[in-house]
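Appendix B. Raw example, untouched.
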Amino acid sequence: MSTLHFGTAAELWHHLLREAESRSHVPLDEQQESYLLFVLLRHQNDADLLARIQALEWLRAQENVGQLRADALRDVGDRCLLVAGLFPQLAQRRRVSVDYFVTLGRSAYRDVAAACRNAYAELFAQLAAHYEALVQVLRGLREGSLLMTQPALIPAVPATRPRGLH
């Protein structure tokens, strides 16, 4: 189990990610690790994370164009990543497999890569290609840190109960 550390949210998440990489035996490159850190920071206070229906969010994203579409798809990919890695019990409660969230999230990242150009497209193509590795690291974070056993320490665990089907 992780020991308690003090610092900024970014420093704490970075420390937890490094431990999770080691625990899961899945080394991430700097770009993947940085992006995963960004996702954790961005969604740490998302009280609706588990209540969102990702398939509907994906469909709504398809209605947008340009950067709005890419951003909405990125959000779907990010949330599916967090659910698959940190909250696999949600899939069970919704009577779908964790692979459902992995497939949907990877697809969203691929769509972001297809909708964008240059480095942003390359980043999301790489993230889509290594989606399972990112999930494995998040599972390592879930299994070995104080995060899931002491949710009051870091405000990343939404308190709301999931609604809807998927």
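End of appendix B.
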